């Protein structure tokens, strides 16, 4: 069974508080990777690879600097600046007063508590971050999981489903092997190694719902993959105990063809009734209850079936449809299609399992990735997607010229030349998972599918491949490409609606140990000056001048955030520390009164009702304001009347900044056609974009606003 990651987090923290803790700094991290030869750092650049020295992947981990806790006053100042262009003069005055009060009263104490809490931990925000994702109670599909749409396979004869899928699987397994053998060169930024922790959480992991929020389980020795075809589940082993591949690309293709042929034997209307994957799209508490039903009967297969799916390296979804437009392809990768015929759902939305990373391949070979976002960010999955795509090309090159380079420092021995008995206790033949569909499950599945179809139909997607210019032109004109595109989004929104709204963009903080992201709040006084001037009758030179100023400001904020000096994560951690102290005191008061220990607001309840602002990278915050806008004070019977919410969180500015209307993220390179996610608020847009040398690819989603 997959084990919970709690222990590994705890052991990481125990290691952190070791008295012999190595010196952490950017310089020490860089030095740790310099000890490796050029061939080990860049296997691809050295034509004939030396015998690789394992360990380069995580060589810098013990030397990476800790994620710093920013100064309280600096955070408050940045928070105030971020709110200024979004508020009226009166609202802003209220927020200024609230911040002054916070700095005078609870702020310094919360800051001290946070520093105390962070002692000996991998990162001050990590556990709070996990909790905010894992206590999210709504369906993860469209709300949390993002998608990548890969470019088509550039090599001939891989443009059909089975050959493309087999190729992706073999390249993905080579990546798994490189991570497990610690031969994957670390990510770097201008020569500086980045944190690689997330790669150890990419495979064999599953989000598992429980009564009290979800857990992440992992089988670090997983050897099999699960394949979904027409809503039916199959599995087979692909690695030995050494993490070497035990199947050639041809063997994998043969297995996948057998699976596709077998899945067709069950009429689609029949198969739909047992498409258990639909249950993973349910509300998390409902799904938790249904998992209990699945594993309740002792004589049933269901418990074993669940374990096989949970512990698989990843899930491969083979769809029987061929979406043609960009929007349909993006929708297929994010949430699947909804198509009801004769009262039965036969769309690809039934051919998914959202609690794991999924590689999705359409009938014509179009492929994408949908991933569970709790433990990994887009940057990590992008590296995986890029390496898989590159490996595809290089394997094709080696079929032409055996001297062509490899992406990997070492390779699995050729499975076709090995004695099968050397594979150990494995099963390379596909097995079908037979679920026992008790009446309770059949009914739940029907209702889950109805709710999923509603959810899909509430959202729309549009794509834009802007071909006029891209990164090269923007930089030649002296602009940061990311800032330039961000200003285009703000200008477009202002042109449609005549106002500015809260915009969110994540910045990566992987320069630090266990770093994730920081929120860039893209709306600034400078960006507002630009958009209002842009839509006015003003000379072009003036517009360009203000665009430059707005872009410079955006770049400065992004740079700050990459150094973990933004305000967002820090304030969220302070909020969590406050909530935790209330919970603890509430528990004590409740137990002394003989009351239920959940007296005030458990972390589960408090965070599951989050406004899912910026679900792509910022799971949002709990608003504790009542509809009238007054603070919902804890009941005095719990002995907490003295604990009013800190003024900074009770102020309307906190709700304003955490209600993201334009949730944006820049993630991609030429291996991707599109990248995207669902809107993070009812009246918001989700915008994923990729800035290429001569073009910009954009995927926008919303609940039927002016997406097109």
Automatic annotation (TrEMBL):
Record-annotated Choline/carnitine acyltransferase domain positions: 67-706
Origin: domain of life: Eukaryota
Region listing for Disordered, in residue ranges: 1-56, 407-427, 587-643
Gene3D superfamilies hit by this protein: Chloramphenicol acetyltransferase-like domain (3.30.559.10), Choline/Carnitine o-acyltransferase (1.10.275.20), Choline/Carnitine o-acyltransferase, domain 2 (3.30.559.70)
Residues the record marks as active site: 373 (proton acceptor)
PANTHER family: CARNITINE O-ACYLTRANSFERASE (PTHR22589), MITOCHONDRIAL CARNITINE O-ACETYLTRANSFERASE-RELATED (PTHR22589:SF29)
Annotated family: Belongs to the carnitine/choline acetyltransferase family.
UniProt protein name: Choline/carnitine acyltransferase domain-containing protein
Species whose genome carries this gene: Cryomyces minteri
Lineage: Eukaryota, Fungi, Dikarya, Ascomycota, Pezizomycotina
């Amino acid at each position: 069974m997959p084990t919970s990651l709690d222990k590994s987090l705890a052991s990481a923290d125990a290691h952190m508080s070791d008295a012999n803790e190595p010196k952490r700094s950017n310089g020490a991290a860089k030095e740790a990777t310099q000890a490796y030869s050029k061939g080990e750092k860049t296997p691809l650049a050295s034509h004939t690879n030396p015998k690789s020295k394992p360990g380069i992947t995580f060589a810098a981990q013990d030397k990476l600097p800790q994620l710093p806790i920013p100064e309280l006053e600096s955070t408050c100042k940045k928070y105030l600046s971020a709110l200024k262009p979004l508020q009226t003069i009166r609202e802003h005055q209220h927020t200024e007063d609230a911040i002054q009060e916070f700095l005078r009263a609870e702020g310094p104490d919360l800051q001290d508590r946070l520093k105390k809490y962070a002692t000996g931990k991998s990162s001050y925000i990590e556990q709070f971050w996990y909790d905010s994702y894992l206590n999210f109670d709504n369906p993860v599909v469209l709300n949390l999981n993002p998608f990548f749409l890969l470019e088509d396979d550039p090599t001939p004869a891989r443009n059909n489903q089975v050959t493309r899928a087999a190729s992706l699987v073999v390249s993905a397994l080579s990546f798994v092997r490189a991570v497990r053998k610690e031969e994957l060169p670390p990510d770097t930024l201008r020569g500086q190694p980045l944190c690689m922790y997330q790669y150890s959480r990419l495979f064999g992991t599953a989000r598992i719902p429980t009564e009290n929020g979800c857990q992440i389980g992992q089988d670090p020795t997983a050897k099999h993959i699960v394949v979904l075809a027409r809503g039916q589940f199959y599995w087979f082993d692909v690695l030995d105990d050494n993490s070497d591949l035990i199947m050639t690309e041809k063997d994998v293709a043969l297995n996948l063809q057998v699976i596709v042929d077998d899945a067709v034997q069950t009429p689609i209307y029949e198969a739909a009734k047992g498409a258990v994957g639909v249950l993973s799209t349910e509300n998390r508490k409902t799904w938790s209850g249904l998992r209990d039903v699945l594993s309740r009967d002792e004589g049933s297969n269901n418990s074993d079936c669940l374990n096989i799916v949970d512990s698989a390296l990843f899930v491969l979804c083979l769809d029987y449809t061929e979406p043609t437009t960009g929007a349909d392809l993006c929708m297929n990768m994010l949430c699947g299609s909804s198509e009801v015929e004769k009262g039965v759902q036969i769309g690809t939305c039934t051919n998914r399992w959202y609690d794991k990373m999924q590689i999705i391949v359409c009938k014509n070979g179009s492929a994408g990735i949908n991933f569970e976002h709790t433990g990994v960010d887009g940057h990590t999955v992008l590296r995986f997607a890029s390496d898989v795509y590159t490996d595809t090309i290089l394997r094709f090159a080696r079929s032409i010229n055996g001297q062509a380079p490899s992406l990997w420092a070492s390779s699995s021995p050729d499975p076709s030349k090995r004695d099968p008995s050397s594979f150990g206790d494995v099963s390379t033949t596909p097995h079908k998972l037979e679920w026992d569909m008790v009446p309770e499950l059949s009914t739940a599945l029907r209702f889950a599918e109805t709710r999923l179809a509603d959810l899909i139909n509430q959202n729309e997607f549009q794509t834009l491949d802007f071909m006029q210019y891209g990164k090269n032109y923007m930089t030649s004109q002296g602009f940061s490409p990311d800032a330039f595109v961000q200003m285009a989004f703000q200008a477009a929104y202002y042109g449609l609606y005549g106002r500015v709204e809260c915009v969110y963009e994540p910045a990566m903080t992987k320069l630090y140990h266990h770093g994730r992201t920081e929120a860039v709040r893209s709306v600034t006084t400078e960006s507002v000056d630009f958009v209002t001037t842009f839509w006015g009758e003003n000379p072009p030179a003036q517009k360009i001048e203000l665009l430059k100023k707005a872009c410079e400001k955006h770049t400065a904020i992004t740079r700050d955030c990459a150094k973990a000096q933004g305000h967002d994560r820090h304030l969220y951690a302070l909020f969590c520390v406050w909530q935790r102290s209330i919970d603890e005191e509430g528990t004590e008061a409740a137990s002394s009164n003989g009351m239920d220990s959940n007296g005030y607001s458990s972390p589960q309840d408090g965070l599951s009702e989050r406004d899912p602002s910026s679900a792509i990278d910022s799971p949002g915050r709990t608003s504790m304001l009542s509809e009238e806008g007054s603070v919902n004070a804890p009941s005095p019977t719990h002995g907490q009347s003295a604990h009013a919410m800190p003024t900074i969180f009770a102020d309307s500015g906190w709700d304003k900044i955490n209600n993201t209307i334009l949730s944006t993220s820049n993630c991609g390179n030429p291996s991707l056609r599109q990248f995207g996610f669902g809107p993070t608020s009812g009246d918001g847009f989700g915008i994923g974009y990729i800035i290429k040398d001569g073009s910009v690819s954009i995927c926008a989603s919303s609940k039927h606003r002016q997406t097109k």
